[in-house]
Write a structure and sequence with these properties.
Largest sheet: 7 strands, antiparallel
Low-confidence stretches: none
Shape: elongated
Strand order of the largest sheet: 1-2-3-4-5-6-7
Number of helices: 0
Number of strands: 7
Order of helices and strands: EEEEEEE
Length: about 100
């Protein structure tokens, strides 16, 4: 569900998802705020539950379109409990991504 492509929410459920035999559920909400015609700021947060294991994640980013290229700088944060399960040693990451838009 999305409102004018700027805000939205999603929900997914599977009786045996993410390669496991356990029921999984994912919920996420996002907000994108345009700064000008080529630049926007995005915020997203979500929650994933696999059986009784439950963790959160978040993303804060800014993207800018230059011609057919979108440059995205983002900061990702995740529940610190993830490292107890061997998923990730670093719950926080910063990314710079260059995307080419094909038409």
């Amino acid at each position: 569900m999305a409102f004018a492509e700027r805000a939205g929410a999603s929900f997914a459920w599977s009786p045996s998802g993410l390669g496991s035999r356990l029921a999984t559920r994912t919920t996420e909400a996002w907000l994108a705020q345009p700064i000008d015609r080529a630049t926007s700021v995005e915020l997203a947060a979500g929650n994933v539950a696999i059986g009784s294991f439950d963790y959160w994640y978040a993303r804060l980013g800014v993207s800018r379109r230059v011609g057919d290229v979108v440059v995205d700088l983002a900061y990702h944060a995740a529940d610190p409990d993830l490292k107890r399960f061997g998923f990730d040693e670093h719950g926080r990451r910063t990314f710079a991504t260059r995307l080419v838009v094909l038409q």
